[in-house]
């Protein structure tokens, strides 16, 4: 019917099935955010006023905007929460023009020193996300591109924003998977032991997308990828606040500008 294919679905207008974006809608430098509200915030608060940011996709809560930041074309795309949704969005973003990715997300730190509201930059990730095992064996490492990590660190230093660099544990489950008790106060012993081991071995943070992004990008064309997260929670002190999103976005946007200058995309 109409030439559409079940093994490569698109809309009847030829747009990407989930993002509803088309070829050329996304800039080659692309931020990935979990929440559509964060995509709106980046576009409204940080993109240049002229030319105005354009909403290029809005379907299933996956909002996408394209604009400029300090004259550099940049897009921000919503992935939704977790590995399954992220694994859907990444190929559609590439088909729409994106080539470099920085996740701007939120996390909890496993270590005592980082404070709520500061930023955490992931240089690699423990693969507890599940999705990546569809692409390569679990032994394949989830690593951020070293040039993106360097740009994120340089950006944070230039902006004088407090930040921490380390390994993320990317989980497929926000609650028990990150050793939060259920409503009966129960944590499966194997997951509590995993949490304690990750903490003792110096893992910096929990989040739900970076390993998926790192593995997909490195195995599906060698796309450069990195990740910076606002620290919402500290699992040692049990502090929690929804704060730091703007600073994480500032770091990511400045890093994209540095990459644009240092390593232009042909």
Structural features, described:
- The chain is an alpha/beta fold.
- The protein has a single domain (29-262), classed as 3-Layer(aba) Sandwich (Rossmann fold).
- The protein is built from 6 helices and 11 strands.
- A 5-stranded mixed barrel has the order 5-9-8-6-10.
- A hairpin with a 2-residue loop joins strand 2 (54-59) and strand 3 (62-69).
- The model has no long low-confidence stretch (mean pLDDT 97).
- The third-level CATH topology is Rossmann fold
> Strand portion, in percent?
25-35%
Terminal CA distance: 38 Å
The main β sheet shows up as: 5 strands, mixed, barrel
Q: Multimeric state of these chains?
A: single chain
Give the count of helical stretches: 6
Shape: globular
User: In which range does the helix fraction lie?
Assistant: 25-40%
Which segments are poorly predicted (pLDDT under 50) over 5 or more consecutive residues? none
How many extended strands?
11
Q: Give the ordered list of helices and strands.
A: EHEEEHEEEHEHEHEEH
InterPro entries: Nucleoside_phosphorylase_d, Nucleoside_phosphorylase_sf
GO molecular function, one term: catalytic activity
Pfam families: PNP_UDP_1
Protein name: Uridine phosphorylase
Question: How do the helices and strands line up, and which of them pair or pack?
Answer:
Layout: E1 29-33, H1 36-45, E2 54-59, E3 62-69, E4 72-78, H2 83-95, E5 100-109, E6 119-128, E7 142-143, H3 146-158, E8 163-171, H4 189-200, E9 205-207, H5 210-219, E10 224-234, E11 239-240, H6 245-262
Parallel strand pairs: 1-4, 1-5, 5-10, 6-8, 8-9
Antiparallel strand pairs: 2-3, 3-4, 5-9, 6-7, 6-10, 10-11
């Amino acid at each position: 019917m109409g030439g559409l294919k079940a093994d490569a679905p698109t809309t009847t207008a030829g747009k990407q099935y989930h993002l509803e974006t088309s070829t050329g809608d996304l800039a080659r430098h692309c931020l990935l955010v979990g929440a559509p509200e964060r995509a709106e915030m980046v576009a409204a608060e940080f993109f240049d006023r002229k030319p105005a940011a354009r909403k290029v996709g809005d379907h299933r809560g996956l909002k996408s905007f394209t604009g400029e930041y300090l004259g550099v074309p940049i897009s921000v795309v919503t992935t939704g929460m977790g590995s399954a949704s992220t694994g859907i969005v990444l190929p559609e973003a590439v088909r729409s023009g994106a080539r470099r990715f920085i996740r701007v997300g939120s996390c909890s730190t496993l270590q005592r020193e980082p404070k709520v509201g500061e930023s955490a930059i992931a240089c690699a990730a423990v693969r507890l996300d599940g999705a990546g095992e569809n692409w390569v064996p679990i032994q394949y490492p989830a690593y951020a591109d070293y040039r993106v990590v360097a740009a994120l660190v340089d950006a944070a230093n230039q902006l004088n924003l407090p930040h921490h660099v380390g390994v993320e544990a990317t989980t497929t489950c926000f609650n028990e998977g990150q050793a939060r008790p259920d409503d009966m106060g129960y944590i499966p012993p194997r997951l509590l032991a995993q949490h304690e081991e990750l903490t003792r071995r110096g893992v910096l943070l929990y989040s739900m997308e970076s390993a998926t992004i790192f593995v997909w990008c490195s195995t599906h064309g060698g796309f450069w990828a990195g990740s910076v997260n606002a620290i919402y929670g500290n699992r040692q002190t049990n502090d929690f606040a929804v704060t730091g999103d703007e600073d994480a976005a500032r770091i990511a946007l400045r890093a994209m500008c540095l990459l644009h200058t240092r390593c232009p995309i042909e």
